[in-house]
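Course assignment 3, question 2. Fill in each field.
Student: A.L.
Task: Predict the tertiary structure for the chain below.
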Amino acid sequence: MQTNAKLYSTQLMRLFYEGSVLLFFVLGLVITVALGAYALEQFSSALHWIW
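Answer field:
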């Protein structure tokens, strides 16, 4: 019974770890896309201002 609880705890920890890594990866991807769109918008606005 003890080993079963330990195995469950290990699986839970691994699931939490992988989930947090995946969450941070998706969050970073979203932030990168948002910043890229914002930078593109600013660049386009600057080009319109120049021309």
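Instructor remarks: Residues 31 and 37 are 10 Å apart (CA to CA). The radius of gyration is 22 Å.
Grade: pending
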